[in-house]
Amino acid sequence: MKRPTWIIATIAGIFGLLYAYAVWSGISQLVQSVQAASASGLALNAMGWLVWILAILLPILLFALAVSIGHSRGLRTLTVLLLVGLSIVAIFWLDVMAYTSVNTSSLLG
């Protein structure tokens, strides 16, 4: 039985808002890090840029991957894949926050 497209779009849309919040938080933290570094006369080094760019790109990539794999496999599978992807984003975000709070000097050049 083929599922209506609107149900798949609704599930993906609800999870998409959560993924978008993670992307927006990454952009916000990147801007704040650049401003804080420039206020102290420093700049972000390559590692600092890499950490924040990955924090922005990972939610986008995982959302696209979960939707592309799960849209044809049923509603339960789509929901589980989106939830697993969001969990990976949350774990990565916690790692980034822990790394940047402890090793702030390693991100500055």
Question: Could you explain the architecture of this structure?
Answer:
Keywords: Membrane, Transmembrane, Transmembrane helix. The chain crosses the membrane at residues 46-66, 78-99. This protein has helices at residues 5-39, 46-70, 75-102, 104-107. The longest helix has 35 residues, at 5-39. The model has no long low-confidence stretch (mean pLDDT 91). The protein has four helices and no strands.
Give the helix/strand layout:
Elements: H1 5-39, H2 46-70, H3 75-102, H4 104-107
Quick one: how many beta strands?
Answer: 0
Rg from Cα: 17 Å
Question: What's the rounded overall pLDDT mean?
Answer: 91
**For the report, how would you describe the main beta sheet?**
none
Backbone shape: elongated
Distance between the termini: 57 Å
N to C succession of SSEs? HHHH
Helix content: over 70%
Strand fraction band?
A: under 5%
SS-based class: mainly alpha
Task: Give the oligomeric state.
Answer: single chain
How many domains? 1
Would you identify the regions where 5 or more consecutive residues have pLDDT less than 50? none
Keywords: Membrane, Transmembrane, Transmembrane helix
Transmembrane segments: 46-66, 78-99
